[in-house]
Amino acid sequence: MSAPTVTDLPIAFRLPELANTLPKAFHPETDRLMDESRWWARRHLGFAYAGNTGRVDKNVDGTLLVSLSMPHADYELALCAAKVMNYLIGIENSLVDKAGLGGSSFATRNVFGRFMADLIGWGDGHTPLSEDFGWLRNRMPRDRWTRFVSYLEDFAHGFTTELEDWRDAGVSDYDTYMRDRRHSLGVRWLFGFAEEAIRDLRIPPQAFEHPDVVEIHDTAIDGYTLINDLVSYRKELVMGDHVNLVYHLGESEGLDLEGAMNRICALIDETEGKFLDLRDRISNGPHGDAPGMRGYLNEVGHIMTSNLWWATVSERYQPGGFPWDGSIAGTMTFHRDRVDFLADPPADD
Q: Which regions span the lipid bilayer (predicted)?
């Protein structure tokens, strides 16, 4: 059996309840963040949406993803992160156009080159983020800023490498795909904001090199990736995009859609359990008593699960939001233009 094609739609399949062990929380000033992000995006991001204000407004809900990723950040920091998120989403959306940015790796590298130059203060102010980056450079301690720059450098390299080297080839194997997505999905840079979000945090630089801390960062990105592939699959199926684990499981293991989706759900629960074990191990390890360590690890947990909660309130994957958040089992149906979900009735006591 191979992965379904768009001509097979509609397809109905069962989904289980997820463990959903980690908490969900929005930033307390989410409405204000959305209002200011919308004003900023209309002023600066029209280039990514052909000047279409409606498309700008639709995609500014990247701010909600930030709200769910760092609910404990102060307002100015959260707004800065929202601007970065919405700018990067604008670039990603532009890459769909093969007659435009998506058709030129040289232009794409130039876009990221100017972005990184503005980040470190060596640019020409080409991006609308140069002032925000200057503010962030002055705010962050030097070692934290150095990590943050390395996180964004990692994403810029990973994203362009995906476009140039392996996106058209698709998923080769599970381990390689997950390793590559740790660099190309655009999650790691959020850890830099998460550090800055925790008041009075004083984690020593060497703690970030400890194997358990390295692993918990990778585990958080793995969890985010699995959730991403689950909630985005219907949209990518219609677009003909095969860079998704659901498609890979159908092609490589012969799983039908229900089997592949349930495998992803099991991997999400397994990864969340691994994250919790690592969090406890770090908390009881040599750096567990560092001021702010527990709060930082909790914020990393919010980043890992943010994509699931975001999918339910964003227009990105379907109008009105994805109808399932893992809190209940039921039957999902993929149509060309939408996803329906029918929850199981409550079990009799």
A: none
Does the residue 163 lie in any domain? yes
Do residues 288 and 203 touch, judged by C-beta distance below 8 A? no
The identity of residue 98, as a single letter, is K
Single-letter code of the amino acid located at 236: E
pLDDT beyond 90 at 310: yes
The arithmetic mean of pLDDT across residues 108-122, rounded, is: 92
Q: At what angle do helices 174-184 and 245-253 cross, to 10 degrees?
A: 170
pTM: 0.95
* Structure tokens belonging to residue 1: 């059996």
Cα–Cα dist 168/65, whole Å: 27
The phi, psi pair for 75, rounded to 5°, reads -60, -45
Spatial distance between the Cα atoms of 130 and 224, rounded to a whole number of angstroms: 28
Same domain, 257 and 157: yes
User: Structure tokens of 293?
Assistant: 């360590």
- 234: domain CATH number? 1.10.600.10
157 and 301 together in one domain: yes
- Same domain as 181, residue 219: yes
pLDDT tens readout for residues 177-230: 899 899 988 899 999 999 999 999 999 999 999 999 999 999 999 999 999 999
The pLDDT value given to residue 107: 85
Same structural domain for residues 132 and 152?
no
Structurally, the chain folds into a number of domains equal to: 2
**166 and 294 share one domain:** yes
Q: 93-102: list long-range contacts, CB under 8 Å, 24+ apart.
A: 93/48, 93/49, 93/59, 94/48, 95/163, 102/163
Same domain? 129 vs 151:
no
Residue 13 lies in a domain: no
Write the CA distances from 2 to 89, 115, 251, 254, integer angstroms: 31, 40, 5, 6
Q: What does the H/E/C string look like for 22-34? A: CCCCCCCCHHHHH
Inter-residue contact 344 to 332 (CB < 8 Å)? no
Give 155-161's long-range contacts (Cβ < 8 A, gap of 24+). 155/183, 155/184, 155/186, 155/188, 155/189, 156/112, 156/115, 156/116, 157/183, 158/182, 158/183, 158/184, 158/185, 159/112, 159/183, 159/184, 159/186, 160/105, 160/108, 160/109, 160/112
